[in-house]
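Quick log. Single chain, no ligands specified.
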Amino acid sequence: MSIKVTGYETQKLIIQNPSTSESFTRLIICGLLAAPISFLIASYLIYDFKLLKALDSSSLSCYRDKEEISCSLTGYNLYGNVEKVFSSNNKNSIKIVKSESAGSENHEDEYSILSIITEREEIFIFTPKKLVDIQVSNLNDFLINSNTTRLNIYTELSYQRNWVSSICFFLFFGGGTFFLCGANFLITFTLIIDICIATNYIFDKQNGKLICKRIFLENFLSAIPEIQLHEIKRIYVEEKTGQYPKVCLYSNSGVLLLSINAKYISETRLIANLICSFLKLEFYQIIQIPP
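-> predicted structure:
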């Protein structure tokens, strides 16, 4: 329920609509649940997108000339042929070489990923799992051991990757992540709006007034005029398909004094029942307006 009755004494009735405590609770739960899930899925998609660019076949040739190390890489992936040169001359020398999982969609039991990190980019290469540790060791040893002058590494997948399946898989989870993030944003935005417009409706018999006070942003939202309690004579609940229901307070002459919107029919009827009981008015009437 998004309303809260914060006081129901003999001389005072306070109805808070929407309930700020409930909105804050939902906002925290939304953040705790949606944010980590979105982050994990997005991280997986980023990694899966990198795998789409991984080389199915490659030839890496490195040589050392005194203190200068140059490497040339040729191969192909989903996007076509790839040719790259790594050296300090083009400010793109190899810094780190490591191995990573190839993912469940890429014969994880047979292949791993040889990851080459340079000054400007990261290259993924599919390579047999039984050879990846040796290749990583040889490359790293070549980078730090000045006695090694030349190194050649060749890799090739023994099967044809299903590009259609990989792309569909990426698009499916990408669309799911986009939907989840969008839904999370809309829910969060709605809850923030609820918190900003939250209002205390104070029915005070001591001074004979209905006072409406914004809980937040009181100086930025239009003020709601005070209403004399004796002016309130009839209570209606208006229900219209496709719109939020509302409680309408009318004077004896039929002038609308105030309307209180709620999200659910049960809430409007509860508010109307509380007001009628507190002010000792006739039971509220329900008006169903056709769409």
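Residues 57-160 form a domain with the PH-domain like fold (CATH 2.30.29).
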